[in-house]
Amino acid sequence: MTAHEVPRTLMVEGFRTRRSFGFGGLSKGATIVGAMVLLADGVIGTQAPITLLVTLPLTLAGFGLAAARRHGMSALSYYWAKASWRRATRIEATSYRRLLLPHPYALDLPGVGASSTLIKAHDPTSGKSVGVVHDRVTGRMTISTLLAPGGSLMAPTSSVQSSLRTWGSVLDAMSTDELIRGASVTIQITPGAGDALGDDVASRQDPAAPELAKAIISELVRTTPRATASVASWMSVTVDPNAAANPPTDLAEQVGEALKTVDSLDLSGTGTDIERRATDVDLRRLVRSAYDPAVFNARDGEFSDLSWSECGPQAADDGWEEYAHDGGVSLSYVLREMPRRPIAYSVLLPLLAPGKFQRRITLAYRVLDPYEGEAVLEREISHAHQRAQATAEVKGRAKWSQRADTQRAEQAAAQMAGGSQVADWTLMVTVTARTATDLPAARQELDRAVKAMRGIRMRPAYGAQAAVFAAGLPIGYNPLVKD
After folding, report:
1. Separation of alpha carbons 401 and 405, rounded Å
2. Is the pLDDT reported for residue 416 higher than 50?
3. Which of 12, 163, 421, 446 is the most exposed place for a label (fewest CB within 10 A)?
4. Closest CA to 425 of 179, 52, 74, 174
5. Rounded Cα–Cα distance for residues 424 and 412 (Å)
């Protein structure tokens, strides 16, 4: 083993994309729709055979688009999404402009955050305030915890193994708690430390320190923002208080139930330190600074008086491959495909390395309960066998890739039978440039980081830039959590 190799015990595997069984390269749903369309063509053709000259070519073209792949998705889905986005652009549904309305009318955050509101709650266990984001439509609540991740690249193998096992235990706890709907972990890297660094140093400085030490520290505070990056990380847990055995009757009880549920998750031993539950001021800072990175390092007093709607943008335009907002232009990428081989635990390090532009990396999770996970895996095994059998009937034998896929599905089922859990998860990355002229450089920086991961494939979030941008913020939106 060379110095740059990762021990086998620190490799991670078991990633697999859900695949339904359909005709050719079609999914199950596309196959059913296609069969219905062909049936309709046949019925119409019996009455007016001349119509087959039009309907049959169109049907075959639809089949071809549904079977073809573009950017990791079916070409039909891609072009349908693009047509929908262009229609939304024509009616100006992709543009947001915040207007001043008289009291008592209030504005909301744009897009997927429109149904959220911020509640300042009191946590009796810590005696401090906590910011709770409440979804007024679904009733779900999201509580964020500020983290201080520790480095593990130079840690002993046993310590890293222990952290991985403990994080697996946290996911197991999510699968058995019916109140937890999903979770996400976000790391945000912002170039420069600004005034916040000065405030932190001032609060820690000893008045009795030697004058020379004070002068050196002051000089470092003055020059460091030009050469460092500020790292903020947090974990957001989405809870449905109404799923409890005895649902809370009022908002205060719902907040209390959500806090109790999140407190039951023990993150100690996962390789990170818990700073505290995010306060309402923390949430305002994170959301507002995402739309305007220039204010990220401002003092707390500048955020304490902001309403929740004021944390959003004054204006925003959701483009096909970019999202323009107050303080700049953002690009968001989503996971396209995971490698089929084991990967190192540090595979995301290129994305986490500081760069010239603000970057936000989000891992979103939805852990399936044991019964749902078992049903999903059994269905995946059946689909894998059906695909291999269908290919064998046509070509005489199944493809090696199909056999390997069947083995991976069976291995996942065996692992679950041994106590593991099944989790839906995705990776999202957002990079923000201050001006449109810096956008090509930001895109190049992100593309280089993605390629450096060697195996994890990502693509732009076509037509969903605003939604993916919001998914990395602690506003209660998780794309894996469905109603």
Report:
1. 6
2. yes
3. 12
4. 174
5. 13
> What's the per-residue H, E or C state across 119-154?
EEEEECCCCEEEEEEEECCCCCEEEEEEEEECCCCC
Q: Are 272 and 150 a contacting pair, CB within 8 Å? A: yes
Beta bridge partners of 145: 235, 277
Q: What are phi and psi of 123, to 5 degrees?
A: -95, 110
Dist CA 310 CA 123 (whole Å): 25
Residue type at 71 in one-letter notation = H
Pair of tokens at residue 325: 């907002």
Provide the token pair at 37.
């369309």
What's the CA gap between 453 and 160, in Å, rounded? 20
DSSP calls for 388-447? HHHHHHHHSS--HHHHHHHHHHHHHHHHHHTT---EEEEEEEEEEESSGGGHHHHHHHHH
Angstrom distance (rounded) from CA 389 to CA 378: 17
Distance CA 483, CA 474 (A): 19
C-alpha separations of 419 from 158, 199, 342 in Å = 21, 47, 20
Q: Is 394 exposed, middle or buried (0-12, 13-18, 19+ CB in 10 A)?
A: exposed
pLDDT tens-digit map of 47-92: 777 777 777 777 777 766 666 777 777 777 888 888 899 999 998 8
Distance, CA of 211 to CA of 478 (rounded, Å): 50
Query: pLDDT: is 52 or 448 the higher one?
Result: 448
Structure tokens at 184: 């996400």
Cβ distance 336 to 455 under 8 Å?
A: no
Is residue 88 classed as helix, strand or coil in its secondary structure? helix
- Taking the C-alpha atoms of residue 286 and residue 279, their distance in angstroms, rounded to an integer, is 11
Position 30 scores a pLDDT of 64
> Which run of H or of E encompasses 223?
helix 211-223
Q: CB of 424 within 8 A of CB of 368?
A: yes
The pLDDT tens digits for 149-195 are 766 555 667 777 787 788 888 888 888 888 999 999 999 988 865 55
185: tokens are 């972990």
Q: How far is CA 257 from the centre of its chain?
A: 25
Question: What residue ranges in 271-422 does DSSP mark as E strands?
Answer: 272-277, 315-318, 323-325, 328-337, 343-344, 358-367
Neighbours of 431 (CB within 10 A): 27
